[in-house]
Amino acid sequence: MKTLVYIDHFKGEIQPASWEALGLGKSLGSLSAIVFGSDLDAITKAAFEYGADEVLAADDAGLADFRVEPYASTLSAIASSRSPDLILFPTTTRTRELAAMIAVDLNTGVLTDVSALEVIGNEVIATRPIYEGKLIEKAVCSGKPVIATIRARAFPKPEADGSKSGTATKVEVKSDALTEVTGYSTSESAVNLGDAGVIVSGGRGVSNNPSLQPPAGMDEKQAELWRAQQGFALITDLANVLGGAIGASRAAVDAGYIPYSHQVGQTGKVVTPDLYIACGISGAIQHLVGMRNAKLVVAINKDSDAPIFKQARYGVVGDLFQIVPALTEAFRKKLGK
Ligand SMILES: Cc1cc2nc3c(=O)[nH]c(=O)nc-3n(C[C@H](O)[C@H](O)[C@H](O)COP(=O)(O)OP(=O)(O)OC[C@H]3O[C@@H](n4cnc5c(N)ncnc54)[C@H](O)[C@@H]3O)c2cc1C
């Protein structure tokens, strides 16, 4: 099988699932990586180290910022001239748009958010969650090439081999951009829950510590937010000790405790960490669909009947304001931090 893998990055910061896509492509046969942007030497070198036989580099100042029009035209032209059987992307906001646009150009379809993939004869069969993860379907694409975006952390990341190199080919850039990037501002999307190996999440319970006395003069809502800040500070400490990211339930987000970019669930992010620690989260179905594919779930909740305990391998019935700092301390000692 002839596979092209698109390496997604933002200003040189690679989406780790790009390497997972390379590992998958390598297991299927001949493999070319595609990199777009400006000053691509470091990314090209890394692509070889992670297994690419060839790197097709569209290295042009005009591609320094992601804009879907020139990226899609350039990628469609590469695909038309190379005739791959399969084009793989890591699933990101950028690649969902890019994959859809090239599928239109190439008159084929896109299989998004693929969590497993097998090739039988010439047919590529993709497994992916549907209906918010309630069902798993197997799907094929009748068009050629097959285009698929893979879910982060669903496929193993290959070992990098620093001694590896290959053929780097410069490709022509099609620059029919209708838009220009005039600047950036820091956004909430800086939180990357999708790639996190450990997530510590807080829910409405993080504000429930009546013994914490807020500073004088606060009204009820201000006092609630202040308590939530103290609660999320404990969650952050634990996440930092474990090298993890911070998640949240929608109730915590809606109440203003933490920005939306941290929300896990049906209307937030779907995550697949090795470890998910849910603190003060009841375990509503809309939350569970976002985290039930975590390898190990630990729940901390005052209510022994909370549904989250059905999802958890380990549960602690108790007050998170006592349990979370105790866990942080224990991990700090254990990990020597
Ligand atoms: C269309 C739709 C989409 C939705 N999408 C999402 C989504 O993406 N993500 C999401 O999370 N929800 C989503 N929801 C909301 C969801 O239904 C729940 O309302 C929400 O998940 C509840 O959040 P929670 O568990 O933090 O709060 P609660 O349900 O209020 O639970 C708080 C928990 O904290 C425990 N607790 C309280 N104090 C402490 C303490 N000191 N120590 C330990 N435990 C304590 C309580 O026992 C309780 O179990 C959605 C709802 C709808 C209708």
Give a summary of the structure in a few sentences.
The chain contains nine helices and 17 strands. The chain has helices at 17-28, 41-49, 68-82, 93-106, 220-242, 250-254, 285-291, 308-311, 320-335; strands at residues 2-6, 9-10, 13-14, 30-37, 54-59, 86-90, 110-114, 116-120, 123-130, 135-139, 146-150, 167-170, 198-202, 245-248, 275-279, 296-301, 314-317. The protein binds flavin-adenine dinucleotide.
Q: What structural class results from the helix and strand content?
A: alpha/beta
How is the largest sheet built, in terms of strand order?
7-11-6-1-4-5-12
Order of helices and strands: EEEHEHEHEHEEEEEEEHEHEHEHEH
- Give the end-to-end Cα distance, rounded to a whole number of Å: 47 Å
| Helix-residue proportion | 25-40%
Give the tally of β-strands. 17
